[in-house]
Every structure is written in structure tokens, then in C-alpha cells.
Automatic annotation (TrEMBL):
This is TetR/AcrR family transcriptional regulator. It comes from Streptomyces lusitanus. Residues 37-56 bind DNA. The lineage of its organism: Bacteria, Bacillati, Actinomycetota, Actinomycetes, Kitasatosporales. Transmembrane segments: none annotated. PROSITE patterns: HTH_TETR_2. The keyword Ribosomal protein does not apply. Residues 14-74 form the HTH tetR-type domain. Keywords: DNA-binding, Transcription, Transcription regulation. InterPro entries: Homeodomain-like_sf, HTH-type_TetR-like_transc_reg, HTH_TetR, MT1864/Rv1816-like_C, Tet_transcr_reg_TetR-rel_C_sf.
Amino acid sequence: MTSTPHGARARARIEITAAIKEEARRRLADQGAAELSLRAVARTLGMASSAIYRYFPSRDDLLTALIIDAYDSLGETAEAALKASAGAASGERWTAVCEAIRGWALAHPHEYALIYGSPVPGYAAPATTVPAAARVGFALIDVVRDAHRAGELDVPALPRDLEAEAARMAADFVPDLPPAVAPACVAVWAQLLGLIGFEVFGQFTRIVEERDAFFRHTVGGLARTVGLRPADAAS
């Protein structure tokens, strides 16, 4: 069947948008996000400078698209590991999801830097990035939630001065879990991303050599923090 002009234009727009984002990712790797320029991307692609603005009205719009793509790619990776580990012990599922996140980061260091590295000067991420950003965190929370439903979660202790904050956090994003779990989830999320960031950005050079074993050991400790039984613990 012959395609309509409208359909051809839509496909062309998808292809050109993909090409713009691919060139922008290449420039992120070569020059960093702070140096990203729509005009430079257009020049490399052989586009008129004015034409690229029909796809991305500003550099910030392009950055936002790249950020959402990176979050979604990482989220899909974490969710795939969660699904693939269904039926395994909670500690094993936790380790599987954490290792998937690490694997993605090591394979996409510049995109990891874009979403978890230093802020880009002059750029403020809009609220549209939040759903994609939340995916990886919710994959980890799903492991905790499933363990709780199975009666296998050891709820962490909570100091009195955190009780009100824990209740607020739980109401915001884990209303079906004990409030004490919420601060623990936030803490291990930050620690996991920092741990991976240290490896991605070279901070472990000449410090940690057996990085796979070190990572598994460390995420086992994070599992205990949220009340899970680590993958190497007896069931």
C-alpha cells in the first residue's frame, strides 16, 4: 500500500529526531553536556541552523529529551532484571536488579553522567523527567514490596526523630510498606548510585581491583539496610 504524505512526513520526522539525538549523544561523550549546541549538531548533520529548531526549540529541550531517553533506558534495564528474577529469593532479585543498573552504567558512562553526574550549568530539569527518573527506584522498591508481602522483610529500626519524616516519605511513594522502610529505601538508592558513580567516574582506580565481588558484597549490605536477606544468606 502506498504511504500517505502525512505518514511519510511522520516517519521522516522520527528519523531526523533520532539522528539529532544520536549526534547529541556523540557530542556528550566528546565534549560534555555543558558544551552541547543545537547549531553545532545541525552543522554536523548538514541541516540549516533554523531547521533544527523545528525539532527541538532550544538546547534545554534537547537535553530534556536525552535525559528522559537515558532514564527510560536504565529503567527498562532494571525492570527487565526484576522480571527475569521473578520467583528467586528476595536477596537474589535485589542483587540482579543492582547488577543490571551497574551494567547499564558501565556500558553508557556518558549517559549515566548526564542523569547522575554534575548538574549542567544553566539547565533545570522539568517535571516531565520525573516519571522516567522514578522507574529505576521503583524497580528496587518492587523487590522490597514483594518481600514484605511474602513476610520476608525485616523492617529496619527507625530513630524517633525520623518518625514523622518516614511517615511523610511512605505516604508519598511507598504507602503499602511500613513507614520505617521509606528512609532506608531512599538511603540505599543514593548509596547505590554513588557506588556505581565511583566506578564509572574512575574513583576506584588503584583502590578496588576485584570490582564484581566488591559490588556484590556492597549491595548485600544495602539489602540488609532495607530489611532484605542478602543473596548469600541462608534461606
